[in-house]
Amino acid sequence: MTDDAPRLPRRASPPATQARPVASPIWPSVVWAVEDADALDAQYEGRARGFAYSREGHPNGEMLARQIDVLEGAPEGSGGGLVFGSGMGAVSAVLFGLLKAGDHVVASAQLYGRSLRLLTQDLPRFGVAVTLVDPTDGAAWRDALRPETRLIMAEVVSNPTLRVADMGAARAAAEQSGARLVVDNTFTTPRAWRPFEHGADIVLHSVTKILAGHSDVTLGWAAARDPEDREALAAAQASLGATASPYECWLAERGLATFALRYDRAEANAAALADLLAGLRGVEAVLYPGRPDHPDHARAADLLGDRFGTMVSFRLPGGRAAVNRFLHAAPELPFAPSLGDVQTLLSHPPSSSHRGLTAEGREALGITEGFLRVSVGIEDFETLAESFTRAVAAASRP
Ligand SMILES: *Cc1c(COP(=O)(O)O)cnc(C)c1O
């Protein structure tokens, strides 16, 4: 090689083509080039459309966000939602983007564990006070209000006991106080409940779970009714660095294509599994909002119609030993603390999501050592029925 041979050939422009790709391209570029300083000004001042630096947004993120906007019915004029590197990125951007020292938050005591940790361990360090309430107790939402309440945060169906929040009371509390109502819609998904149609000001998701659906990306999404709130979320996202990877957005877009099909199938499996478990000797209790024996069944039917979801929980009478026998007898059901995968996943809240609580705290929520949560997948129901029947029988035989 001679010294004047080029060592780094210039990148070529993408080939010109009159036909456009049908599948979405992936744009991994972190940085975008413009013609000159005036063009950059035009972009930052909103007179021209373009990207600059991917932490502030990129095409794959926008394409995914626009699809979730449609599913969730992001309000006209809101500017649409934003994607984040994880569901917790979305939660963090909402809390850090919209709150300041002296503000007060009213939140369900049964939110996702990390959200609760952020609310109770981190926000107080920044001078934000938080009151947790029983989400099923309508009066509790109102009674917790203070003049400085700025946010009210709820999940419709709680983890892992699948209690159904009094969303009417949460909304009324928001209206009475002028606080924003924030709904984490990860469990219910827009297939069952569309929070913007029920008074929510901000809706967020762990896209990692049911929307993407294959346990191979971590992503979040959040949208705000008020464009000023959206700007605050976008600024928090860029400052916190809760950036979504373009490749993961692309994978999630692919997952989203089958979301409705997967959801409907998993939900039908969940309803059938709940009934199967309820009929098995060796199961102490089954929790599924679609069953008349669920403590919030009437509210679930009122809020969700017949969309009772893809999660089922149940209790084995023999404590942790019975849980371990169950797991050993069904190694084909992954024992993994997540949800929303195409495959059925099992989790044991006392040793995972709820291990930070005391035994008494768990007991108060009905989370015994024999408690298992099932994220129901899209398998043929017969194979699930066979696995669960076999494992329950093994669990009850010490
Ligand atoms: C998983 C989950 C989150 C957090 O999402 P990540 O993508 O894991 O950061 C938030 N809320 C709920 C209800 C969840 O299930």
Outline the low-pLDDT stretches. none
Reading side by side through the largest sheet, how are the strands ordered?
Answer: 1-7-6-5-4-2-3
Radius of gyration: 23 Å
State the helicity in percent bands: 25-40%
Distance separating the two termini: 75 Å
- What is the makeup of the main sheet? 7 strands, mixed
Average of the residue pLDDT scores: 96
Report what the structure shows.
By secondary structure, the chain is of the alpha/beta class. The protein has 14 helices and 11 strands. Pyridoxal-5'-phosphate (PLP) binds next to helix 3 and helix 4.
Question: Which key features would you list for this structure?
Answer:
11 strands, 4-stranded antiparallel beta sheet, 398 residues, binds pyridoxal-5'-phosphate, 7-stranded mixed beta sheet, alpha/beta
